[in-house]
Q: What sequence folds into this?
């Protein structure tokens, strides 16, 4: 489902998979194709469990840090400054980078990202899309997918639009049901 790699992820996806001990799914699916803005890393490392996940991923280079600065990325910095008036630093950085680079936004903050991504023709992938990719690639079966979704909801305070993994399969496979990312 990652149509325009890499995935520029915000804290939501990283925390969901890190806090349920399934960071391996992100590595297996998108190794070398995940970008984390410095702002997202700063949000994540406040949680010790996520800090070790990110530190390992950066050390082994399957996740890359993106540092926004005006000299190297003036257009990204301008968009970031504008977005920061409405959104948090992580979401603003993710959307500014993805827009300017033509990459995919990775976010579960549908309030902040859906409209912006739609208006700017930016692909969007959320935790449910990642979970479906894991199912589609055979990394998890439907029973494991349900267990992972349940853990995301119960252990990470994820306000998932669905609680039944079959609905995730139905949407991504056949476009049936509620729109999911």
A:
């Amino acid at each position: 489902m990652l149509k325009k790699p890499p995935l520029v992820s915000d804290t939501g996806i990283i925390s969901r998979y890190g806090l349920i001990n399934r960071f391996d799914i992100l590595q297996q699916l998108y190794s070398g194709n995940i970008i984390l803005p410095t702002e997202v890393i700063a949000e994540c490392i406040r949680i010790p469990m996520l800090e070790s996940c990110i530190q390992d991923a950066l050390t082994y280079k399957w996740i890359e840090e993106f540092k926004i600065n005006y000299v190297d990325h003036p257009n990204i910095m301008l968009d970031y400054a504008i977005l920061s008036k409405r959104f948090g630093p992580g979401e603003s950085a993710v959307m500014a980078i993805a827009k300017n680079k033509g990459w995919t936004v990775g976010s579960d903050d549908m309030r902040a990202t859906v409209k912006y991504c739609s208006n700017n023709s930016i692909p969007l992938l959320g935790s449910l899309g990642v979970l479906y990719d894991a199912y589609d690639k055979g990394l998890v079966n439907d029973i494991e997918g349900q267990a992972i979704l349940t853990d995301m909801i119960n252990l990470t305070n994820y306000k998932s639009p669905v609680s039944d993994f079959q609905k995730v399969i139905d949407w991504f496979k056949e476009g049936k049901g509620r729109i999911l990312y």
The radius of gyration is 15 Å. The longest helix spans residues 142-155. The chain has two domains: 7-127, 129-174. Strands lie at 7-9, 34-37, 64-66, 104-106, 124-125.
